[in-house]
Specification:
It is a single chain. This protein is an alpha/beta fold. It has 6 helices and 11 strands. The strands form 3 sheets. The protein has a 7-stranded mixed sheet with strand order 3-2-1-4-5-11-10, with helices on both faces. A two-stranded antiparallel sheet has the order 6-7. Strands 8-9 form a two-stranded antiparallel ribbon. It is globular. The mean pLDDT is 93.
């Protein structure tokens, strides 16, 4: 299977950047102290989150479907050796990774791009050690639906988010505000769909975080949804 990001890997890497720093205090807080832990980064892309976790002392394995993004991730590893192992693989199966082999699993801004949610979360649960933890980050499914927009109040000029088709699950494709060369679109799912898929895989939610962004409309409603939990 050819990954859609193969065609835009260089542009995506330029957009994300090669630093091992990750300016995301919510992610840092939810992953917590990881020194000495073995962590799998699912859909790791060019390795940004893998590099961050490795700088915190974790032993990191990154898995991605895109060969081109993995090539770039390995180049970053050559520039700054952090001991990260990158593997070509499908998030649906995580084939080649042993059962009960990781203390933690991370999937950052990617789960909404993966076609089968059920298969992906089952695979994450499979590779976790008993009691192991997971952290997920996705665009907020209530406010990034297949039909969204922004309106300006004619009285006070405040900006509001409009949403529609929340109950219409499945893949949608733009338009949206995005770097032009990169794919736009995702698999929209209701919050209940995410929660039920995690529960069916034996993954228990401990924390949810809803995070805004520093733009007028995203100060009013959350842009991102974070989930932390553990394998029951």
């Amino acid at each position: 299977m050819r990954a859609k990001y193969d065609e835009v890997a260089a542009d995506y890497d330029e957009w994300v950047g090669g630093s091992s720093a990750l300016d995301d205090p919510t992610f840092a807080e939810l992953t917590g102290e990881v020194a000495g832990q073995e962590i799998c980064v699912v859909a790791c892309g060019q390795g940004r989150e893998a590099r961050y976790l490795a700088t915190q002392g974790a032993v990191v394995t990154g898995v991605d479907l895109s060969e081109k993004l993995l090539e770039i991730a390995r180049l970053h590893e050559e520039t700054e050796a952090l001991g990260i192992a990158y593997r070509h693989g499908d998030a649906h199966t995580l084939e080649g990774l042993a059962d009960d082999s990781f203390d933690g699993v991370v999937c950052y801004m990617a789960l909404m791009d993966i076609p089968s949610l059920d298969d992906a979360v089952r695979s994450m649960a499979r590779v976790l050690k008993p009691g192991g933890w997971f952290v997920l980050c996705i665009v907020h499914p209530c406010f990034k639906t297949p039909a969204t927009g922004e309106i300006v109040d004619h009285v006070d000029q405040s900006v509001r988010r409009t949403v529609g088709k929340y109950f219409v699950e499945g893949y949608w494709h733009g338009p949206g505000r995005h770097r032009d060369a990169l794919p736009v679109g995702a698999y929209h799912r209701m919050i209940s769909t995410y929660v039920n898929a995690l529960a069916a895989a034996g993954l228990v939610i401990d924390q949810l975080r809803e995070v805004p962004a520093d733009t007028p409309v995203w100060r009013e409603v959350p842009q991102l949804l974070y989930v932390r939990g553990r394998l029951s």
